[in-house]
Amino acid sequence: AKAEGRRTYRFFTAAMDTEARRRVVLADELRRGLAGGEFFLVYQPQVDMRQGRIIGVEALVRWRHPTRGVVSPAEFIPAAESNGLIVQLGEWVLRAAAYQTRAWMDRGLAPPSVSVNVSPIQFRHPEQLEDFIGALVRETGLPRGVLQLELTESALMEASMAQADVLDRLHRQGLKISLDDFGTGYSSLDYLHRYRVDEIKIAQEFVQRMVDNRGDGAIVRAAISLAQALELRVLAEGVERADQAKMLADWGCHEVQGFYFARPLPADEVEKLLAQRTVK
Ligand code: C2E
Ligand code: CA
Ligand code: CA
Questions:
Q1: What is the ipTM of this complex?
Q2: Considering only CA atoms, which residue is closest to atom 23 of ligand 1?
Q3: Could you tell me the end-to-end alpha-carbon distance of the chain, in angstroms, rounded to an integer?
Q4: DSSP 3-state percent helix, strand, coil across the chain (nearest 5)
Q5: Which of 24, 193, 198, 209 could be 216's S-S partner, Cβ–Cβ 3.0 to 4.6 Å?
């Protein structure tokens, strides 16, 4: 057992070493990528199924890495969160989305809302976020109602007084707040009315399992009625098939996002859909 323990120990330190080294390299590359313009945004339409109309788009970040090709945010967002670069990256995303929205507005193409993901780490500096958005809105002349921030439950769970105040002020200035990945966090529900939440987004894992699993279906239905009772908008994400769309419509959730309707697309491709205002 002793030999086994020692072997495990050695293996573990070697693995940690590689992991630590990988993280340092990734941090350097992220910093360089941000300076070198390697990031770009794709936009996924959000659709009201009743008319097939596009009611918004969600901006999602991508990294065009010089040797590894396009890297998914699932790979680099956690790294950027652990070394603090997420604040800079998050500001880059907000600025890029705001300027893109401005350009769409000037051509009469802007959708009713443009959603941007805000990391809980970025939200730990709420005044910085508020000031940044304030400056950005002045700079671009965007009407505030068009920008929507997507925050996860964990960001709101930890919310301090300062954060609650910032959400309140942003909300009064017209910014919309969406609660992302609803159902996957601690599911304490009181923050839904304690903070200024406008919309809940039902997490895709529930949506994808609900057809085959009654428990997941019950959660989705409960989330829809909760939103209705609190007079919040409700959007289901990760809709991949017609039967899922049908089930959501039957349960009274008409706003959806997912591969079944449209994938996240580069700006020039999503523009074609924005021009016709629908996904089909
Ligand atoms: P999320 O905010 O929940 O975004 C939805 C993710 O689901 C996106 O993955 C999207 O491409 C994917 N998706 C959309 N429809 C479907 C579908 O029908 N089926 C399936 N299987 N997936 C679908 P993506 O773009 O890889 O982003 C992953 C996560 O990375 C996001 O999850 C979000 O947490 C984070 N992320 C992306 N962009 C940003 C950003 O600009 N800032 C921050 N802080 N996080 C971001
Ligand atoms: Ca999101
Ligand atoms: Ca989500």
A1: 0.99
A2: 238
A3: 64
A4: 55, 20, 25
A5: 209
